[in-house]
Design a protein that fits this description.
- The complex is a heterodimer of chains A (476) and B (498).
- Chain A is of the alpha/beta class and 476 residues long.
- Chain A folds into three domains: 1-39; 42-342, Rossmann fold (3-Layer(aba) Sandwich); 355-474, no CATH class.
- In chain A, 42% of the residues lie in helices and 14% in strands.
- Chain A is built from 16 helices and 13 strands.
- In chain A, the strands form three sheets. Chain A has a six-stranded antiparallel β-sheet. A five-stranded parallel β-sheet of chain A has the order 2-1-3-4-5. Chain A has a two-stranded antiparallel sheet with strand order 11-12.
- In chain A, a hairpin with a 5-residue loop joins β9 (428-434) and β10 (440-448).
- The longest helix of chain A has 38 residues, at 2-39.
- Chain A is globular and about 105 Å long.
- The model of chain A has no long low-confidence stretch (mean pLDDT 88).
- Chain B has 498 residues and is mainly alpha-helical.
- Chain B folds into three domains: 6-191, no CATH class; 193-274 and 412-498, no CATH class; 282-394, no CATH class.
- Helices cover 69% and strands 0% of the residues of chain B.
- Classes of the chains: A alpha/beta (476), B mainly alpha (498).
- The interface between A and B is medium-sized, with 25 and 29 residues.
């Protein structure tokens, strides 16, 4: 009897100790997961927040590198075509990283089409040397088996150089348990860290400047001969989408090609599309964008002017090719309209804060805007970039100094030299409206070339790119 | 592998789990394997040095044992035993000398010739210091000497002996264990003891607090000032020097706490290495509380064999100076470490010489030696002396240290405490304040320890919920405020260099 009591109390003691360990673990994990949410960089969390608000709505997911990130605007697709989409492009995402971003996104969404940017097919590495970029792409996804598989696969890469096992392990845990990185933000925490402010651009990222573009080198038709890591993962994406019944559209975004590897990648992408019988759009073969007005940097990315053109083309394509439903007016999608309202405000604020005439003109390429402009200083026509940007908004050579005109996209330009419509000497005045919102006045801006400014062009080198600012600056 | 690395967070639980799962007879082999994996995390090739040191001292132990057992009790046998122990010491210390002191010795020789006006073309060697070599060499040597003295029998099981030399918790920065304590514990397999493991875990948490929350944070300020000393003066050096005393204490005692805690989880009891040293009333007492395993090693294997205090006062002082100068050299192959050691030796000699005078003055002034004020003044005075010596430890050379000392004496910029200058030393205001709060916690813990309170024992006595919350909160606190993880270049524990 004594023995039974003693063994029972021994068993109880063991149970209690196990419970103690479990409770400490549970309390620790709960506290850490709460703190992890607080300390995480909100820029990343916010970027996917709108996706997690209604993942089931998505008809289209855009996947790829920064070329995709900068060049497709889901909110404009919604407004102009009623297509629901999200942009999952990521800075310096190689195709394996893109594959795993897609897998994670597909845990939550069930789209009809996935659009994949086919850059970097020639790469053997699975991810960028800069792990910061992986954080941008993966941090917003909650911990899950898919995320663990993603990180395990990406960090098991013989082609990526790690500084010893410690570096590999730290990178691995850093992505899987972001608290190991962001706990150091404890001293930066403020009110913003306790609120979620979803991305107005639905994952996309506008890069708002006009850059000089390098000349594109000719395509000699070369192709990859063996199977690279990039090819393997692109094929995995196509096969996985097919298994799930999702249409695949492969694309190559437009950019000034300065590296022959890029052409090799583009040509190989065409072959893969043919091999699998999936749709393929090579924007490099099309005359849709104008590198003199649409580049954000010298050899890579689209600014909003270029992005609107790409988005518009893709909208028509997606609608015609896949028969995607126009959800506009559908009560179930009312949240998209209110989110577009926020996007509209975001664009208006951005326009209102733009001080440089060239950048301002680039933003006027927005097909939802109309503007009225009076030109009181002929010198702005001496800047070829300004001229290109002006024509890029839909006007032609009929406008000139001393005129006041109204431009609507589609080439409808009304020029007036009536004395009733004053043109102020030395001033370029612009009024921007949005017809679809009852001719709402979006912004009023007055630009002038500062006195004594000897040059018309104001080129500035930023991060190795020549940014084409105008000498005409906004007046307060 | 560092204790504060992510690798160790994976390594340690796996080692512990496997250790208690595998058959008892194989446990020490598993620990030996894990210890070598742990060591090879730094430089796999240098595991051969560890092995060489192990083989030499193991064989010397066996030979000493064999000679001792021989029936021939002649002076020849005594000589042979001395020869064996001498050879073991020469080989072990020879390896240590080559890897740690060879370049330094060459520079001294070259310097000496230069003083005599002779230019010597000294070849340069790119020798990487094997991590923890001073620690495991001393531990292995203590075994040989113990066997020679007949304090312990020779260990016949090579793998078990190899584990004694390479036991991973204390392999690279101590405590420097004695064979009498650790090797005997390794004779039989340990069993899992929940209370002991919990105590060990709490000790590890305390160690991590000291290391990654305090020491690494303080290091930012100290490194800013000392590494760019030309740009600083006066009170900056006072602040940095006081902080360095705390940094090195937290760094080293933090490592020791993690080591002792980790060993305790595995069922082994290692010796205590620090006992609230900055509460010491004298420099002599400070050395009884600071790096106890090394101080007692020098006492047992150097000071006493030299004659200790048995051969008169003058000889005693000579012995103290020898021990401290060698202790300084043990800490680093550089003259500023030797100077630091010598200064600490001088403190003790002068302190002892002045003791009668100090006692007389105290009596004349009617000072109560047990009063709080008197004791506090002695504690502060001891800290002042120890901290002044640390200037020579932290500075990169003796001349720099004297320059810093001179600048402290001329200190004329007290406004740095009021105008925010202290927040420009690498830590922003919030981090600086957090550091001060954590230092206050450390002082409180050491005072309680000095007064005989056992904080871990107190926690263990509380009810379950209290314990759960305290342990979970401690983990979360350390993980939040500690400097760790990617983006953070884990500072090596300062004592690894030694």
């Amino acid at each position: 009897m004594m023995q039974t009591t003693s063994s029972t109390s021994g068993f109880k003691c063991i149970l209690l100790r196990i419970l103690s360990c479990v409770m400490v673990l549970v309390l620790t994990v709960l506290a850490l997961s709460g703190l992890s949410k607080i300390t995480q960089r909100k820029k990343d969390v916010n970027r996917y927040a709108a996706f997690f608000d209604h993942p089931g709505d998505m008809d289209v997911l855009f996947m790829g590198s920064s070329h995709m990130l900068n060049a497709t605007f889901p909110m404009d697709l919604w407004h102009d075509y009623g297509i629901t989409s999200y942009n999952f492009g990521g800075h310096d995402n190689y195709l394996p990283a893109t594959y795993w971003v897609m897998e994670n996104a597909l845990d939550y969404a069930d789209p009809e089409v996935v659009v994949i940017d086919c850059l970097r097919l020639e790469c053997m590495e699975k991810m960028s040397e800069n792990q910061e970029y992986l954080h941008h792409s993966f941090d917003p996804f909650p911990f899950s088996l898919t995320k663990a598989r993603a990180v395990t696969d990406l960090f098991r890469d013989p082609y990526t150089e790690f500084d010893g096992i410690e570096d590999r392990l730290e990178g691995y845990t850093g992505i899987l348990f972001p608290y190991s990185v962001y706990h150091e933000r404890w001293n930066e925490i403020d009110e913003i860290d306790f609120t979620t402010l979803p991305s107005f651009e639905y994952g996309a990222e506008s890069s708002v400047v006009v850059s000089e573009a390098l000349p594109t080198i000719p395509n000699d038709g070369a192709r990859l001969t063996g199977e690279t890591t990039g090819i393997r993962y692109l094929k995995r994406m196509i096969e996985d989408c097919r298994k799930r019944g999702i249409e695949v559209l492969l694309v190559v975004m437009p950019f000034p090609v300065t590296d022959e590897n890029a052409w090799i990648s583009v040509n190989t992408a065409q072959d893969i599309a043919d091999e699998y019988g999936v749709d393929f759009i090579n924007f490099l073969d099309m005359d849709i964008v104008d590198f003199s007005t649409d580049c954000y940097d010298m050899d890579s990315h689209m600014n909003p002017s270029g992005a609107w053109k790409i988005t518009d083309y893709l909208g028509t394509w997606l609608k015609d090719r896949y028969g995607l439903t126009d959800h506009r007016g559908d009560e179930a999608y009312a949240a998209w309209d209110s989110d577009y309202g926020l996007y509209h405000e975001f664009k208006a604020i951005r326009l209102g804060e733009t001080d440089d005439l060239n950048t301002y003109l680039m933003l006027l390429a927005d097909r939802n805007y109309e503007y009225e402009m009076s030109i009181g200083d002929a010198r702005i026509f001496e800047d070829p970039t300004t001229l290109d940007l002006l024509y890029n908004t839909g006007v032609d050579e009929t406008v000139g100094a001393g005129t006041r005109f109204i431009s609507t996209h589609g080439g409808n330009v009304t020029v007036s030299d009536s004395p009733d419509v004053p043109v102020t000497d030395g001033i370029i005045e612009i009024l921007v409206y949005e017809p679809a919102r009852g001719d709402e006045l979006i912004d009023t801006a007055r630009f002038a070339i500062p006195e004594g400014c000897p040059v018309i062009n104001r080129f500035v080198v930023e991060n190795g790119n020549v940014i084409l600012y105008s000498s005409a600056q906004r007046l307060e | 592998m560092l204790f504060n690395s992510i690798e160790f967070l994976f390594f340690f639980p796996i080692v512990v789990l496997a250790y208690f799962i595998i058959p008892k007879k194989a446990r020490y082999i598993w620990l030996l394997f894990a210890s070598y994996i742990f060591y090879m995390g730094w430089n796999a090739a240098y595991a051969l040095l560890l092995l060489a040191s192990t083989v030499v001292t193991y064989l010397s132990g066996l030979l000493l044992d064999k000679v001792s057992r021989s029936p021939d009790d002649t002076p020849h046998r005594t000589s042979l035993r001395k020869l064996i122990v001498a050879l073991s010491c020469i080989i072990s210390l020879g390896i240590l000398f080559f890897y740690k002191y060879f370049t330094f010795a060459l520079s001294l020789v070259s310097g000496a010739f230069a003083l005599a006006g002779i230019s010597l073309n000294v070849p340069t060697f790119d020798i990487i210091l094997p991590v923890g070599i001073s620690f495991y060499t001393f531990q292995a040597l203590s075994y040989t000497i113990d066997v020679y003295r007949g304090d312990i029998p020779a260990e016949r099981n090579f793998l078990r002996y190899a584990l004694f030399v390479s036991f991973f918790p204390q392999l690279v920065a101590g405590p420097i264990e004695r064979s009498r304590n650790l090797l005997t514990q390794m004779q039989k397999p340990t069993v899992f003891d929940f209370d002991k493991a919990r105590d060990g875990f709490l000790l590890m948490l305390w160690g991590y607090f000291l290391k990654i929350v305090l020491a690494d944070r303080i290091a930012v300020v100290v490194d800013t000032v000392y590494d760019g000393y030309e740009a600083y003066s006066g009170w900056y050096f006072v602040v940095a020097t006081v902080l360095f005393a705390i940094q090195i204490y937290c760094d080293f005692s933090g490592y020791s706490a993690i080591a002792i805690g980790a060993a305790r989880i595995l069922g082994f009891d290692l010796m205590d290495n620090f006992d609230a040293p900055y509460t010491a009333l004298s420099v002599a007492e400070y050395w009884r509380r600071w790096h106890i395993s090394l101080t007692t090693w020098f006492k047992d294997y150097l000071y006493i064999p030299l004659g200790g205090n048995r051969k008169g006062r003058f000889r005693k002082y000579i012995n103290i100076m020898i021990v401290f100068l060698i202790s300084g050299l043990w800490h680093g192959a550089s003259l500023h470490f030797v100077f630091w050691g010598g200064l600490n030796g001088l403190y003790q000699i002068i302190g002892e010489c002045l003791l009668p005078l100090r006692t007389r003055i105290a009596r004349l002034l009617h000072l109560d030696p047990d009063s709080f004020g008197y004791r506090l003044s002695r504690i502060l005075g001891t800290f002042f002396l120890v901290d002044v010596a640390f200037i020579f430890f932290r500075a990169d050379r003796i001349r720099t240290a004297f320059g810093i000392l001179g600048s402290i004496i001329r200190a004329d910029n007290p406004w740095i405490f009021a105008d925010g200058s202290l927040y420009a030393l690498g830590l922003d205001e919030k981090n600086f304040h957090l550091m001060l709060i954590c230092i206050a916690v450390l002082i409180a813990a050491d005072v309680l320890k000095r007064l005989g309170y056992n904080i871990r024992g107190f926690i263990a006595k509380q009810d379950y919920i209290f314990r759960w919350i305290v342990i979970a909160a401690s983990i979360v606190f350390i993980l939040t405020f500690g400097l760790w993880g990617s983006g953070y270049d884990a500072n090596n524990f300062i004592y690894f260099r030694f």
